[in-house]
Amino acid sequence: MDVDAPRGLLRFFQDLPDPRAANARHRLVDIMAIALMAVLSKAQDWIEVEAWGLANELWLATFLDLPHGIPSHDTFSRVFARLAPQTFEGVFRAWMNALQKASDGQLIAIDGKTLRRSFQVAGAKSAVHMVSAWAPLNHVVLGQLATEAKSNEITAIPKLLKLLDLKGATVTIDAMGCQKEIARQIVKAGGHYLLAIKDNQPTLHEGVKFLFDEAIAHGFEGLARALHQEVEADHGRMETRRCWSTREVAWFQDRAQWEGLGSFVCVECAREVMGGQTSTERRYYISSHNGQDAAFLAQAVRAHWGIENRLHWCLDMCFQEDQCRVRQGHGAQNLSRLRRIALNLLRRNQTRKGSLKTKRFLCSCDRQFLLDVLLGLT
Questions:
Q1: What is the average per-residue pLDDT within 33-47?
Q2: Which of 67, 214, 317, 364 is deepest in the core (most CB within 10 A)?
Q3: pTM to 2 decimals?
Q4: pLDDT of 109 strictly over 60
Q5: How far is it, in rounded angstroms, from Cα 112 to Cα 107?
Q6: Count of C-beta atoms within a 10 Å radius of residue 282
Q7: Is 337 part of any domain?
Q8: Residue 136 sits in which domain range?
Q9: Among candidates 154, 130, 91, which has minimal Cα distance to 324?
Q10: Alpha carbons 141 and 151: distance in angstroms, whole number
Q11: DSSP designation for 257
């Protein structure tokens, strides 16, 4: 086993500002390394992080300084409560950039998730809401920020977008992020947008809905459009998905306010289950793409929802994020960021087959596999 291997990855923590006094007993880089390895190895809170560290102290001492042994769970709690989330996010992105190269034309899905047990009744502190940028094709988190107190995703999304390389990428956001300034920011950064529209943009939503509903009813007579259709049958259910896109946007009076507006998109999902029950749902979008490639737009719409079942669901089911009661200071969002680093590393590693749950179990009992995951081996 190459116990010197972790030294290379620990360089990302070297320049992280220490929020404590200069006479702190434990090195910050040791605290960060132990916390990350413990989270990879199934630890859910600071008490379990300390327990994992004590159980592996002799091994950890071969590549960490540990001048005063393993920090207590109170030390982990205080450090992560005080650690500035913005600086930790910088380390997160530097690490992910080193592990992967952004490809031109990639999809980036933006969505938020509340850390449900991070609220404090006594301190009147609401639950932390994290907004994440997700690469659906690579299944990795590209970045994340917490919304400001008494605010929502609209204020956090622009700040998160500033941290990302959007050149050539297509950014997908649900209706909350369908804002003129957000669309302008994406285009100015060299990217494209695909934004869901609902009643929070009533004029836009009503106009686009009327356009497609009438066009579909009359077979798109006189309206240029592209169409992509997929049919899936499974478990007694048949689902037909159609995506129409049109670049005819000149009729929309406020089009100049939406930077780079190139097309309107409608996605219809028709389900038929055993017994003859049917349901049809239509969703509407605006995009800076010219609308000629309906297959790509359909892929982008469907890929966006991967952030729910391949990120948020995994964080809840595999990492038990919604059950975590870490609440002090910035602790909840910093621990959340550790989980996302761990998730990225586990997804990247292909040296062993298995689910995320299985890989976390292997990290807890196989030190060589833990090192392989830390080094981002594929």
A1: 95
A2: 364
A3: 0.87
A4: yes
A5: 17
A6: 15
A7: no
A8: 98-310
A9: 130
A10: 23
A11: G
